[in-house]
Write a structure and sequence with these properties.
Layout (H helix, E strand, L loop, with lengths): L12 H4 L16 E3 L14 H14 L3 E3 L3 E5 L12 E6 L2 E6 L10 E6 L10 E6 L2 E13 L3 E10 L4 E6 L12 E7 L4 E2 L22 E2 L7 E5 L12 E5 L9 E4 L2 E9 L8 E4 L2 E10 L14 E4 L2 E7 L2 E3 L6 E4 L2 E7 L5 E5 L12 E5 L5 E12 L2 E6 L12 E4 L4 E7 L2 E3 L6 E3 L2 E6 L2 E3 L5 E3 L10 E6 L2 E2 L14 E5 L12 E7 L2 E3 L8 E5 L2 E7 L2 E3 L5 E3 L4 E6 L2
Parallel strand pairs: 1-2, 2-5, 3-6, 4-7, 5-8, 6-8, 7-16, 8-17, 16-18, 17-19, 18-20, 19-21, 19-22, 20-23, 21-30, 22-31, 23-32, 30-33, 31-34, 32-35, 33-36, 34-37, 35-38, 36-39, 37-40, 38-41, 39-42, 40-43, 41-44, 42-45
Antiparallel strand pairs: 9-10, 9-15, 10-14, 11-12, 11-15, 13-14, 24-25, 24-29, 25-28, 26-27, 26-29, 27-28
Length: about 575
């Protein structure tokens, strides 16, 4: 069983600071159903529902209830709770729960009608806490909810005037969306309002957008006598990239905001029929989990907004067992909609007894069980060695004693990964990735199938392989029966080769590795209606044993690019 952090304990009623309430009548043991209304949470009454919702969840956890139910309507989260071990204030907390479901309502079309809203004051420094945090829990499911913010943590406007000589742009904010004097324009993008597609200009992240980075210092100014609905941007370079009638989206913040949902140290977690139309940072950070299912998850902006948020959609980090992402929509995200990654470790010392000292950001590095293995990314073919014991040395350093002898090829700067967090299988199926300023999928892990998906109008390539500092590599991957409608136009990989799908390594700790392996790409349709003439559908680097066959290509002078210096055994049968 995956180890949990030992220092966390069950949240007490005293820590939550809640008033004790009588527990509603429940059904037989193992079939208990609680409803948040019985604890005082009433939708659409404009009052703070956070204490009552948390008390319902706490009571359900204590009694072993199978469900916590919510009515249709809007529940507001205003008050926060500070709980030892969780780092900062929180809204909804599920901790040490087992076999429990949070269940909302749906309309006649099956769409969720239960809205959970972070109710806060919007300003440039606003960073409301995590909306839903699930930790140390087994078999928890979340079904039929909309998780969002009021007001939205971003806005959209229409360009009404452009003065290129003086670099001045005036926009009219769309009805119902926030605007205020001095509002930061972080993660700002240009759109075609008629098609709701991103405007294409530039070939690097900085040149292909209006603002980017974690410390944006461009601010909107309210135009006098406009009722606060006209905003002006001066001297930020917007005028050269916008025209009258364009759409502009932006976010109020691009750094140190909390994620919308966090799931850590859990087993058998399911999110189903959940919508996230507006985000403060990433939509969901999920780490150190075993078996994770995401079905009918929708990242789609609402109420005229063109962008969902300023960061990633779902980040699955150091996951084991199985992953299923199915029937989901990822639209309007500032960065990468779906990321599958795991942590690297870096050998800092080799002991006389063959033990190794590893520096890593893996939170559970001291809890790697005896009998699990480390993978050594050394030489032409990586290999695994069995862990005998693990010891925490402090300062993110850990000593591992191994069952087998350490080969001479392992050096003090060699890189390892932790096979405790390896996937048996991940399936990404029947999903739509469209209009995202990022890579639709970033895959650093093995045993992945991507099938029956649609990729359209995404700024960056679909990426497989390690990035600058984290990994690992894409191995045993199938990419099949997908529709890829547009070439990305931003050279995020700095390869000067526009493509739709890229297999590569950008990691600075390796020199031209060939660790991406056993990848099959077939049955896909690749189209290039808007991309550059020199684009290819598939760009292959840093890989061995790749087979490409039975794909359809439209609008490409070259179908596949293969780097001969960093590849071997690449078969292209198209």
């Amino acid at each position: 069983m995956m180890p949990f952090l030992s220092f966390l304990s069950k949240i007490s009623l005293g820590l939550l600071g809640l008033v004790a309430v009588s527990v509603p009548a429940v059904a037989e043991e193992g079939n208990r159903v609680l409803h948040v209304r019985e604890f005082g949470a009433i939708p659409d009454d404009g009052l703070d529902d956070m204490p009552a919702i948390n008390e319902a969840i706490r009571t359900a956890t204590r009694l072993g209830a199978s469900e916590v139910r919510f009515d249709s309507g809007t529940y507001r989260l205003q008050e926060t709770v500070t709980v030892g071990g969780f780092g900062h204030d929180n809204y909804m907390i599920v901790d040490h729960a087992k076999n429990m479901a949070l269940v909302g309502e749906v309309d006649e079309d099956g769409k969720p009608t239960t809205r959970i809203v972070r109710d806060y004051e919007l300003n440039n420094e606003a960073k409301p806490p995590i909306q839903l945090r699930i930790w140390n829990s087994d078999s928890v499911s979340v079904r039929n909810f909309v998780f969002t913010n009021d007001p939205p943590m971003g806005s959209t406007a229409k360009v009404v005037s452009v003065d290129r000589e003086n670099d001045v742009v005036v926009v009219e904010v769309l009805p119902g969306l926030p605007a205020y004097d001095g509002m930061r324009a972080a993660s700002a993008h240009a759109w075609n309002l008629e098609t709701t597609k991103l405007k294409r200009f530039g070939s690097t992240p900085g040149s292909a957008t209006l603002t980017i980075g974690l410390n944006v210092n461009d601010y909107w100014e309210v135009v006098p006598d406009s009722g606060g609905r006209l905003l002006k941007m001066e001297g930020a370079g917007f005028a050269n990239r916008l025209a009258v009638g364009d759409g502009v989206s932006w976010h109020h913040k691009s750094t140190d905001s909390h994620n919308q949902i966090e799931v850590m140290y859990c087993r058998d977690t399911v999110f189903e029929n959940v919508s996230l139309p507006n985000l403060s940072n990433a939509g969901m950070l999920a780490g150190y989990n075993h078996n994770f299912t995401l079905r009918r998850i929708r990242f789609e902006p609402e109420n005229g907004n063109l962008a969902v948020g300023g960061r990633d959609g779902i980040h699955l980090s150091n996951t084991s067992g199985t992953v299923l992402v199915e029937d989901s929509v990822f639209r309007g995200l500032r960065m990468d909609p779906l990321v599958l990654r795991k942590s690297f470790g870096f050998i800092r010392e080799i002991g006389d007894d063959g033990s190794i000292v590893v520096k890593t950001n893996l939170r559970t590095a001291a809890e790697i069980p005896s009998g699990d293995s480390l993978r050594f990314w050394v030489g032409e073919v990586p290999f695994d060695l069995t862990v005998e014991s693990a010891e925490d040395l402090g300062d993110s350093l850990y000593r591992y004693r191994l069952v087998e002898d350490l080969p001479d090829t392992v050096k003090s700067d060699s890189v390892v990964s932790f096979q405790t967090y390896s996937l048996d299988e991940a399936i990404i199926r029947n999903c739509v990735f469209a209009g995202n300023f990022g890579s639709a999928i970033v895959n650093f892990v093995e045993n992945v199938i991507i099938e029956d998906c649609v990729f359209s109008d995404n700024a960056y390539q679909i990426k497989m392989g390690a990035n600058f500092v984290s990994g690992a590599f894409a191995r045993n991957v199938i990419f099949r029966n997908n529709l890829c409608e547009d070439v990305s136009w931003v050279d995020i990989a700095r390869r000067a080769q526009p493509s739709i799908l890229m297999i590569h390594s950008l990691n600075r700790f390796f020199e031209d590795p060939r660790y991406n392996r056993n990848i099959e790409i077939y049955g896909n349709t690749f189209r290039n209606p808007d991309g550059p003439d020199n684009a290819v559908a598939i760009d292959v680097r840093n890989a061995t044993d790749v087979r490409i066959h039975d794909n359809v290509y439209e609008g490409f002078e070259r179908k596949v690019s293969i780097d001969p210096e960093t590849t071997a055994d690449i078969e292209v049968e198209d």
